[in-house]
Every structure is written in structure tokens, then in C-alpha cells.
Amino acid sequence: MNKNIVLKAENINKYFRVPTLFHVLKDISFEIEKGEFVSIMGKSGCGKSTLLYILSTMDTDYNGALFLDGEDLSHKSADQLAFIRNQHIGFIFQFHYLLQEFTVLENVMLPAKKLGIKSLEEIEHDAIEKLRLLGIADQAKKLSMRISGGQKQRVAIARALINKPSIIMGDEPTGNLDSKNSEIVFSILKELSEEEKLSLLVVTHDIDFAKKTNRIIEMEDGRIIS
Amino acid sequence: MNYPLIFSIAKTHLVSRFKQSAVAALGVTFGIGTFITMIGFMTGLNDLLDGLVLNRTPHVHLYNEIKISEKQPIDFITNPAEELSIVRSVQPKFNQIRIHNALPILDFLNKDKRVKGAIPQIKVQVFYKAGAVNLNGILNGIEPLQEDRLFNIGDYVIEGNVQLLKNTPSGIILGAGVADKLKLSLGDRIYISSPNGALFQLKIVGIYQSGLAEVDDIQSYVNVKMAQRIMGQSESYITDINVKLHDLALSVDMASQLSQQFNVSAIDINAANAQFDTGTSIRNIITYAVSITLLIVAGFGIYNILNMLIYEKMNDIAILKATGFSGKDVQYIFITQAMVIGIIGGSLGLIVGFLLSVLIDNTPFKTEAVPTLETFPVNFDPVYYIIGIIFALIATFLAGYLPSRKAKNIDPVEIIRGQ
């Protein structure tokens, strides 16, 4: 397997069984290389978010094979997958999924603490560095419910970066932001991809956003059409 | 598993919802506090009531019982296997009231390692005389200090004391009922007449009140020697031997062994006071039943609050799972919260229970039945505090376990997509 391939999907099929049997994803296969910034586009209900959650290992109810850094993920246990998510996958959601009662800094540190490789001082240092990279180091000690939406999304990105993941996945990361904040978030992601050679996979509706990425995967009715 | 991290998340959840956590903890506090108070009070009362009887009851009591001979004269000349003999109107055999060889038996018993002490007693039927009035009475000849050491007679001497009796050969500790009827008090003299009609003047050195009117109206205590003098008997005249053992449980075996060995009647404490065990165990059952009910109610409170918490924290759970926390981690976060509530609530409960117990212990409570009692009796046995905290931990664990299992099984995708 090519060393440069970060994520590889092979013939992924997924069915919804409730309320009726429905074939959501049909033979999805693609690869993402290291440092690539890929967007998935498609209409609502085409299965793009469903695909993203399968790729993120949170949804395990599918047929087919999924490789991350050459490692087959399709037959791992839930605990093993949780560990892999923790170490290798960063996540950015459409809504600002932060732990409300924790400070910004604690939110960013959380995945690293869970991983438990570095000492607390190192983690804190890393976290502040990530926040500085994203221009919100001054907010570090605030409770995460007290900062603005755009700032929250940047905190989420900092959290996704903290364990130096192989890939960052985003589900409409700018979907809930105004154009100015969208612009900021996009440029941050773009910078990360170019300068840090980070792989990014982003599901989006936003055609302007998608056009600026390296590659667009377009989906329709559960198939990749281009 | 990263316990410090899980604990810090649990702590943040608890602290950020302080009121609800406090209410849940107070539920446990209330349950445990009530348990400690109730059990302390109940067992204190139990011990007192048991003590009333058990402390002054010998573990083994040796005496000569008036009874019918098991082997009637005819049985010596007939063979019961072949012949049937019927004896009508059997009379009890004449028997000495005194125990044969009582002094050697006492020596023997006091050398036995199982025995805490064996002391003689001499029962004498007398009349208390006041002018023309003759009151029926029983004198107990005792060794005052030994009797006090083993059977706590001193607790029931409400005026004067046993030391005085020891120092006064012709002293008497008079039953409170008798003293009352004859208008006698400490230092007065009383005449008694012995079974053979001799009159003796005794000095009142104490008043005895057991709380049982029937006893107090009749019974008084004198020295062993005095009792022997009243009977006109020698030093070896002893009617009863009371034995106290180190281990109460041995009393049944001891009684049957002594009865065979010395050919006397021996009665053990269990046979004498069987009903007390029953009363004690029923009171204990009631106490535990009420306390467990309280704890179950507290447990439901915790269960409710954690269940609500988990619904509110769906987002947090989804984030934690998305960022790599396993279902078990999430489960431990919520169980930890339950256990923290349990430990804090339970410890507070122990303190509250202890303080209430102290309060009750200092509440004045006077009763004729127990002259030594000034306040309500409370048991401060640490065992109940240990049971209390273990109860609290088990109840909160169960209350936390079910909601936490739900949190463990939440599918993060459903939450994230649901918005």
C-alpha cells in the first residue's frame, strides 16, 4: 500500500433498516493522500454525512473495508476504535460541540489527556500553542459557553489538532458561521493542509468553500459521481 | 483507563450543577443519618433492656430443686422392660435446700478457665417486722463486692452502697418497696424474724430498687455470714451458686455438665430468659427495614438526578465519544459522580447521625425501672457506622449504574446528526 495514502475506503455499502430498508451508500471507494484537502459535496440526503460518520469510525454498521494509515478498521472493537479516533482522527462538527462547563483550554486538552502519553505540562503547552495558532489564546481561561460561535469553532479545530491526527474530518464546519468567520475558519484549514501537511476531509454544502479545496468528491443518491 | 481525567470530568459535572448534586447527596445524608440515629437508639435501648435482665442474671445458676425422684423404690425391685409398675400420688423426696459440698464446688468453679466468677448466695425466708405487722420477705446472703463485680447489684442500689454493706456485718440493703411500706430510710434499723422465730436487728445501709415492684416489695440483701447466722447454720450452708462465664454461649453446655458432675439442678441463662433474644432480634429487624427503605428512597433520588443529568449531557457524551472516549470511560464518569455523591452524602450522614445520637444521648430520661439511667441510652458501636457507609456506597452505586449504562450505550452519531 502506498505510504502516502492516509484514508482508503473500499466498496462501502450501508443500509438504513428503519423505517424501511434503504440502500444509503452504494459501493463507495476512494482514497485520500497525505496533505490533501478534500471536500465531499452533494444534495441533502445523498448520504454524504452518513459516509463521513462511517469514515470517522463512529458508525460501524456497514459493509466494506476502511483503512487508516494502512490499518484495516472494519473489524475492530468499539474500544479499539475509540482509541484510534482519539489518536488519529480529529473532528470538527457543524455545531460547536464543546463541553459547556469546561474552559476553552480544558476542552482543547481533553483528547490529549485521554491519550495520556504526554505530561500535563506538555499538554497544556501544546494546547496554548494550538490556540495561539488559531488566534484565540487570549480566550483560554474562559468557560467555553462564554465565547462567540466563530471562536467556538476555532476551539473545536484546536481540539481536533491536539493529538497530531492523521486526518481531520469536518461535517459542515462553516455551515453555522457567518461569511467572515467562515472565511477565517477556511483559511485556517487551508493553512494547516499546506503548511503542516495535514489531510482534511470536509463535508459541505457550500460550493464556494468546496471550490477552494484540492479535490471535490461529488455524491448523488449514495454514489460518488465525480 | 485514565482515572484522574475521568474523575476531573465527573467533578466538573457535579460542581457545575451544585444544587442538584447537593440535593442528591442530602438524600443519602438523610438516609444514613436516620439509619445511624435509629440503630444507635434502638440497639442502645436493646442493650439496656437486655442488660436489665442479663447483667444481673447468672449465666449458670446452681441450686437444689425440690422434685420427685426419678427412680421410685418399686423400680429397684422390678424390671421396667418386663413389668409395668404404677405408683399413684407420688410425693417429692425430702431434700436439703443447701447445696452439698458447696465450698469445694465454689473452689472448683473459680479455678475453671471458662468461669469469670462463681459466688455463693443464701436465700432465707424471713418476716420484716414493724410493730404488729409482719411483712413477707426474702433475704439474699451475698458477698457484696463480688456480687457487684459480677452481677452489677450496685447499679440498683439507689441510696447507700455495697461497700457499706461489706463494712457493716449486720447491715442490710433493703428493697425499696419494703422501705416505702415501713417508712424506713438509710441509717434506720429494722427487725426481722428468721424461719425459726429468732429476732435480728439490722442496720439499713442501702436501698435497692430493681424496677420490678414484686421484687422490690420482698427482696433485701445481707452479708453471707449474716444470712448463715439468721439460719443458725455453719459457713458451709449455701443454697445457691451463681456462675458468670467469660463466654455466654457456653452456658448451656456448662449447665448440663455441672448438673451431672455435682448432682444439683443447674439452669442456664438461655433457658431462663429465652424471650429476650426474640424481642431483640425483632427490634433489629424493624430498624434495618426502616433504614433500608430510607436508603432505597435516597437511591431513587440519585437515580432520577443522574438520569436527568445524562439527558442534559447528551452533547457532552457525544463529544467525549467522538474525541475518543470509549463507552466504558463515559460510564465510569457517571458512576464516579454517583459514588462521589454517595461518599460525601454518606459521610455527612455519619456525622449527622453521630450528632443526633449525641443529642439523644444527652436528653434527660428518668425511669423508675432503671435507677442508674439519667439520659436515653444510645449505642455508639462503630460497626453500625461501617454498615451505614457500606449501605450508602452500595445504594448509590446501584442508582448510578443503570443511568451510566444508558450513557455508555448512547450512539454519538444519533446525537450529532439529530441537531
Shape annotation of chain A: globular
The domain tally of chain B reads 2
C-alpha-based Rg of chain A, rounded: 17 Å
Strand content of chain A: 25-35%
Tell me the distance between the termini of chain B: 30 Å
Q: Provide the CATH top-level class of chain A.
A: Alpha Beta
Q: Could you say which overall geometry of chain B the principal axes of the C-alpha atoms support?
A: elongated
| Main pleated-sheet profile of chain B | 10 strands, mixed
Write structural notes for this entry.
- The complex is a heterodimer of chains A (226) and B (419).
- Chain A has helices at 48-55, 78-88, 104-115, 120-133, 149-161, 179-195, 207-211, and strands at 5-16, 22-33, 37-42, 63-68, 71-72, 89-92, 167-171, 199-203, 215-220, 223-224.
- Chain A has 226 residues and is of the alpha/beta class.
- Chain A has one domain (36-58, 78-224): 3-Layer(aba) Sandwich (Rossmann fold), CATH 3.40.50.300.
- Chain A has a six-stranded mixed β-sheet with strand order 6-7-8-3-9-10. A four-stranded antiparallel β-sheet of chain A has the order 2-1-4-5, covered by helices on one side.
- The relative contact order of chain A is 0.20.
- Chain B has 419 residues and is an alpha+beta fold.
- Chain B is 56% helix and 16% strand.
- Chain B has helices at 3-16, 18-54, 73-77, 102-111, 144-151, 162-167, 176-182, 213-216, 224-231, 251-262, 269-272, 274-312, 314-322, 327-361, 382-409, 412-418; strands at residues 60-63, 115-130, 133-142, 157-160, 171-175, 189-193, 199-208, 219-223, 240-245, 265-268.
- In chain B, a hairpin with a 2-residue loop joins strand 2 (115-130) and strand 3.
- The radius of gyration of chain B is 33 Å and the shape is elongated.
- Chain B starts with a helix and ends with a helix.
- The model of chain B has no long low-confidence stretch (mean pLDDT 85).
- Chain A binds chain B through residues 49, 53, 56, 58-59, 78-79, 82-87, 91, 93-95, 97-102, 106, 110-111, 113-116, 159, 171, and chain B through 2, 5, 9, 12-13, 16, 315-316, 318-329, 411-413, 416-417, 419.
